[in-house]
Amino acid sequence: MMRLLKRSPNGDLELISFSDNVLPAYAILSHTWIEGHEVAYNELVSGTGKEKTGYAKIRFCADRAAEDGLEYSWVDTCCIDKSTVQELQTAINSMFRWYQGASKCYVYLSDVKVPAEVVNAQDFRITWVEAFRRSRWFTRGWTLQELLAPATVDFFSTEGKRLGSRISLEQEIHEITRVPISALRGQQHLSEFSVPERMSWAAGRTTTFVEDKVYCLLGIFDVFLPLIYGEGEAYATDRLGAEIRRRQAGQGTESQQDLTVSSTLPFPKNESFVGREDQLQSLEQSLLLPNTHRRMTLYGLGGCGKSALALEFAYRALAQHAGRLVFWVPAISQDSFELAYREIGIRLHVPGITDDNADVKGLVKKALSSASVGQWLMVVDNADDPDVLMGSTAGEVGSARLLDYLPHSSRGKILFTTRNRKAAGDLTQNSVLELKDMSKAEAGELLARRVSKNELLSDDQSVDRLLQLLAYLPLAIVQAAAFINSNDTSVSEYILLFRNTGTSAELFGEQFEDPSRYREMESTIAKTWHISFEQIRRQDPLAAEYLSFIACIDRIGVPQSLLPPAGSQLQQIKAIGTLKGYAFITERQHALQELKSEKLFDMHRLVHLVSEWWLEEHDELTAWTIKAAAQLEKHIPYGGHESMEVWTRYLSHALYVARQDGILVTTARASLLDRVGRCQSSLGQYSSAETTHRQVLLLQEKSFGAEHPSTLTSMGNLA
């Protein structure tokens, strides 16, 4: 379908749509855009935009066409509805053919002026030829095909004065563009020129979007490609080269009708993506095998970069195979899943997809499971909540689940992302890839790419310290970089803010703009993990209790025996499994001789911080700190040597809890420290014991006064 401007005898303009096989004779405009000054499709339809400078070009084209006996004309700014992805893709892939089919092509050079006293500009070239040679029109990517495709091309100044034709100006055009005169005259078909030579004609030309430097060559090489804005020039060039080779081998896409939209990727290509090459290779080796249906799950801690890795993999999969379809399905909720499926169905032109009460999920599953669709990759992102994919869609036991609507085809692959290891095992039991922390080098490169001013990263020691504090976690690094950029803050200043108890929570709750994350989901570290906390609280209450308890003690070396006694042994095992599954805690590996020792767990540094803030936000921090202190008092004796190897593991946690001034009352802190000091004496750690008992004495004096028996007992212990 092509939309043309019709000029009535009184000069009014209206848009008329024609199918490609019944087009009337028409003129076509070639020009350069000025951002904000062009008249768009919706403005022309509504009758607005006439005050814009771009409207004069539209009038020029329509009026000039009328002078040449043509009722219809075409101007790209207002004849394409660019808000519709499918229409824009169709237009760009059809552009060369539309220029080729025009009866007249008018090149409007807004930067070439002819003096008012010159009536016939062609007789006085000296007045405009230098401006013609310098015209911006010759530097733009899209104008190359507009120069070569039409049968006739006439050039006009900004006043609408005719300067000449492609033939009469061929020597100047040849010198400016390096396009051979035989190509300008149409004496040689473009296919007779080599691929490198045709590529060289576009060298040095610019476009607003980098991908358009490649897309503007589609007609020059007589190929069709799906548009993927955000893939970058390099990937687009790779896809163009692959399609040219396929065309030369007789296997290329034969028509626009055969070209379905290849991608529903919601985010542009992340130009700041770094590292993860081993994981990308694993995904490629596991998923991109020909003629076999494969599924795989990528799981890891929230904020570790799962979606970013999946997005990079998706763009690479597109670049590797020009005809591959890539679909992105957010599993944030059943609604987000169904909306994504509807969009897939519409873009694939699935019959009946827009009907009232259509079984959208069933139709899309059937379409993608059929042999008629080519190779495809589906990314099911954020499959964190098992109830979304594995819960029944109708709320009834035995009814279909969203998981049941995933297609199965030897040409299709599915990649899931989740922060829940149990969900990963349920989705693809034998095909799971864990995404761990970035390496120090990768984290450093990510920070360097994200921080806009290099001088803010001049202190190498501070950069290393910051990356350690952020635990090499991608989302935390991106969030820190956003703060540094927007506040022009040095890394050392950010570290001071981070270490300040009063501002650290604010830093991780600081919202920032990130085009590679869902707008409906807040992208901060705090909000990312708060979502996980709520899921755990709903799905596994005992795991939520363990999480709350560990948030109030030292994050390192948590003995399983210290956790609050609750539930059956099976429930305890499952609760620990849940926290490990979300990568919130890791189990310490024992040496062979220590295999019978009890299990010890470490909590992720940032998870520990954020879970503490979460408790504070829910007014639960004090209650859980009191529970932690009570649990420690139960397990820590007043010194002695009995079970020393057991209670020794509790001391660091007691010291951590006792430091919670303002949360734990003074007497409780003193009681806990008294036990710790006596145990340190039993262990022969006399210097540490002295320090601890001094703290007890100060606390007792503060609570009871210098002469109270408890204070005197503390003084004796210190002595």
Describe the structure.
By secondary structure, the chain is an alpha/beta fold. Helices cover 46% and strands 10% of the residues. The protein is built from 32 helices and 15 strands. A hairpin with a 5-residue loop joins strand 1 (2-7) and strand 2. The longest helix is centred in the last third of the chain and has 19 residues, at 686-704. It starts with a strand and ends with a helix.
Strand order of the largest sheet: 2-1-4-3-5-6-7
Span of the ends, CA to CA: 95 Å
Mean pLDDT score: 84
Oligomer: single chain
Helix content: 40-55%
What is the number of beta strands? Answer: 15
- Helix count? 32
- Radius of gyration, rounded? 34 Å
- Strand content is 5-15%
Name the structural class: alpha/beta
Spans of at least 5 consecutive residues whose pLDDT stays below 50 are 251-261, 512-522, 591-595
How would you sum up the major sheet?
7 strands, mixed
Shape: elongated
Domain Heterokaryon incompatibility: 26-113
Domain NB-ARC: 277-455
InterPro entries: HET, NB-ARC, P-loop_NTPase, TPR-like_helical_dom_sf
Protein name: HET-domain-containing protein
